Amino acid sequence: MTKKVLNNIIAAVKTAKYFAISVDSTPDISHTDQLTFIVLFVDSSGKPVERFIKFIPLSGHDRETMMNVLLDTLLEHDLSIMDCRGQSYDNETNMSSKYNGLQARIKQINPFAEYVPCSAHSLNLWSILKSTIHGDVIKLLSTTRWSAQHDATHALKDSFAEIRSALIQIAEDEDQTATTRSEAARLASKLEDFELALLCVLWDCILERLNATNKTLQKTEIEMATCANLYAGLVEFVISLRNDEAFEMSEEKAKLLVKDYSYRADHQRSRKRKRNFEDPDNEILLLPRQIH
């Protein structure tokens, strides 16, 4: 039955003539490395089809071994590498390198076999952000809904260090493009800024209260007097955040997120302003934290 099913698959590939291959290595239950060989083609009705061909035991992961296994498998099933129009592997250097990886060696034989990085592996890489985060998963920022804005800000504050760690991991991954690594490094650097951490804490606090108030105001049974009280309470809450005690509490929470607790202005050289005749003798100088 297995042979008959396989023969039908190969016959369908030959009818389509042109095909693509997807190859990946994975250990079986006995921890023996094996190669998963998959072929993709378009059938006579124009429908894209993906079919598993076989598991192949691996004796090595070098590009020469992988290429020989791939070519031998095609030859075994009477499929020509010259009819291959696409190849997809993971992002490892021995597979994806444009100079001497497996995909480059195949293209030397058949220039029409275009390489497409496996999207699943790319998603797995970015899933580092999800796997390293123990709190809420990071979310897109909405400009219209208070709930979405609070969810996004809270997720960032709740997993600040984990997100920074994941970005550093991506930035150091040599299998990623220069653009991806550069962007990850830039974002990781921003997450080391104390002022960003402080703003994250403050906005999480503000948006949490705004979101709670907004949800209550949307209730159908709410009365006008309750609405007025909610608005008044919200105004008082925002004003209360401006006192020293509340600000110091926010600073302490922000200090838990980063290693450097200083403001950017602390590292900047103070500038002397040219004084006019009518300026007061005692000019008030504000500390960086007082400015904020």
Structure description:
The chain is α/β, with parallel strands linked by helices and 292 residues long. The chain folds into 2 domains: 2-123, 2-Layer Sandwich (Nucleotidyltransferase, domain 5), CATH 3.30.420; 127-265, no CATH class. It has helices at residues 2-16, 63-76, 93-96, 102-109, 119-126, 128-131, 146-158, 160-171, 178-190, 194-217, 224-240, 244-255, 288-291, and strands at 19-27, 33-42, 48-57, 84-88, 114-115. The protein has a 5-stranded mixed beta sheet with strand order 3-2-1-4-5, with helices on one face. The radius of gyration is 30 Å and the shape is elongated. The model is unreliable at 120-124 (pLDDT under 50).
Brief account:
The protein has helices spanning 2-16, 63-76, 93-96, 102-109, 119-126, 128-131, 146-158, 160-171, 178-190, 194-217, 224-240, 244-255, 288-291, and strands spanning 19-27, 33-42, 48-57, 84-88, 114-115.
Order of helices and strands: HEEEHEHHEHHHHHHHHH
* Main structural class: alpha/beta
What count of helical segments does DSSP give? 13
- The low-confidence runs, each spanning 5 or more residues with pLDDT under 50, are 120-124
Q: In which order are the strands of the major sheet placed?
A: 3-2-1-4-5
